[in-house]
Write a structure and sequence with these properties.
Length: about 80
């Protein structure tokens, strides 16, 4: 059973990214995904990160809500 709290900080940790608040804000501020491009196909992901994102969405996994939130944040006008 997965007992990890599913929030943006822990999603960044799952993705192997720095997860302090300022790290998350910096990542979101410096990365974006164009309309029509699936989140997992963004050029800045490693193969493992892209696979995690894709599987989370396809399987409606525990992380899918946070992946959707990250997707929204990366598509907002900056």
């Amino acid at each position: 059973m997965d007992t990890v709290k599913h929030n943006l900080t822990n999603l960044f940790l799952q993705l192997g990214l720095a997860a302090e608040e300022n790290d998350i804000e910096s990542f979101i501020g410096s990365h974006s995904v164009d309309e029509g491009i699936p989140l997992e196909e963004a050029v800045f992901w490693t193969q493992g990160q892209a696979q995690f994102i894709k599987e989370s969405r396809e399987n409606d996994a525990d992380w899918s809500d946070m992946v959707d939130e990250l997707d929204t944040l990366l598509r907002e006008d900056k």
